[in-house]
Predict the 3D structure of the following.
Amino acid sequence: MKNILLFLFLTISLFSYSQDNYVHLITKKEQFLNLAGKPLTDKFTNMKSVKVVYDYESKKIYFFNSTRYTYHYDFCLKVLGFNDEIGEFNKQSYNPTNKRTYLLANINYLQDSDDWVMELAASDEMNAGMINFFYNVVSKNVFFKEKLKFYLNSPYVIGLNAKKELKIPTVLSDFIFKRITEQSVENASNIGILRKYDLQKKEDFNPKSDEIIIINTTPEFIPTVRGIIITELQTPLSHLVLLAKNRNIPVYVDTKVWDKESVNALLGKKVELITRENSYSLKASQKAIPIKKAVKEIILKKDFSVTDLVDLETTTPLNIVNSIGSKATNLGLLKQIQKDMNSFKTPEYAFAIPFYYFDQHIKENHLQDKINALYTIPKDSVKLLEKELKNFRKVVKNSKVNPELLKKIDEKLNAQTDFKNFRFRSSTNAEDMEGFNGAGLYDSKTAIIGDPEKTVEKAILDVWSSFWNFRAFQERDLFGINHESCAMGVLVHRSFPDEKANGVLVSKNLYRNQYDGITVNVQLGEDSVVKPEPGVTCDEFYCHNFSSFGSFVVDYRSTSSLNNGKPILTEKEIKKLFDISSPLERRLNLLWQKRKMSKKYYPLDIEFKYLGDEKQLYIKQARAYMD
């Protein structure tokens, strides 16, 4: 009798253990959700994932508890009896041959659209025959087989599909990206009055500083508010995201928030917004709106002793940053590094117009009294400030640049015959600095040699006048930067009319922290990555070395809406970006610390371009990435 009871107990325990940890067949959604955990990468918000293993020897499939077993290796080791190191496991499980112990995948559930996708690890080199076989085994053992798609998440599987070797239903990243309704941008919490602004109707957008706002498109700047819920998906390197991280205010994307009755019922009321990694909460609150702490005034250094154009093609002087600004200094440093690395180019014929000429222009045109009047406008008189800044920018644009400066620039531009178009860009001491990103605050303009409309003088005045952009003025105020200690230099270099692709790279893996790598947003031609048109998506991916298997991993999050689903960059072009990022990061940080431009070691925020039919790589800009 005791033996029978023991047998029953062990049988029930084993049955319970297997039910809690794995199943061979998924017959209903509840069963899937009980096994589901979050995906290994944070590419997408609100996605549930179950890991699956097909054991070749036993011809059995296992859908297992993805919370209890974080990695496939854990499950195979503890449940299936694999008895070797993870390096050997990876060799057996991710190679391109038919000699495999296991086939591994994730089954991802998109809750908002009730879609299901099967995804291999981006490092997996499973051949097409095995992918077809594995997909069919999975689909036969799940209730959602009619909906199951195979996700083309890497250049390798995208290539197999392009050669028509995959005989199964496939989707690219945009299939998932377009079905996402929520996305976490910056995790934080705050109290404020809830308001809604319809930016698509071009209505006045002057929210108060005590508001939490709902907006239906990406604004040109982030107003001084307590929090933001936006209906438009963001890339991690957009100006909105970078500025939100700089401010550390709660920002969340909910594409359906505009029409939610529960949210609209809270409009005009005091609420608490809490944003988390995969969700947010918005509730009425009796808590007091925190009083904004007074920020310590920041007095920046500016040096007017440099009174001539600074040629950035030669060695950048040690303490020049206080005379020409961070952006121009960084390009000069990039040019030093370029000479040694010889793996990329920087914009040719680069030089800087120092702060001296900005200061002289204010004096020669008697602008200081008007500038002082701007400083006296109360900070809460937002509309008045915006109006007066706009009027002052017109005054600056209608003023005259010193003829001697124009003569010097004309001589410099006409000393070369390679280019007609030159880009004039802001280079202040209040952007690209430690603790203050300043992304998108100022303007850039193009001048064309001999063009009566796009003149050098007009380009300089447009850039100088952008020092008084409302968004720039407001952001400096928010961070306590003393306006009078700021100055505007101008970075000049040849422009890029023949872009095949342009992008932004962060020398950090933003989605899988355990792997050193890079995160890239890239777009076709000249279309903006950081401020895209509504509805336009870019190629977005991260990549890293999968050292235990020796492969290079590229994992897509979205694909460009302008390139018919094809990757914009080849794997070779991506690998080149990856290979230069670490040495560039290391060397630039050393130069920054030598010049006392930073106290910490930072990943880089790099703007790059691929030019011409030969796809020549140019690094246009590099600055510290601060998250």
Notes: The radius of gyration is 28 Å.
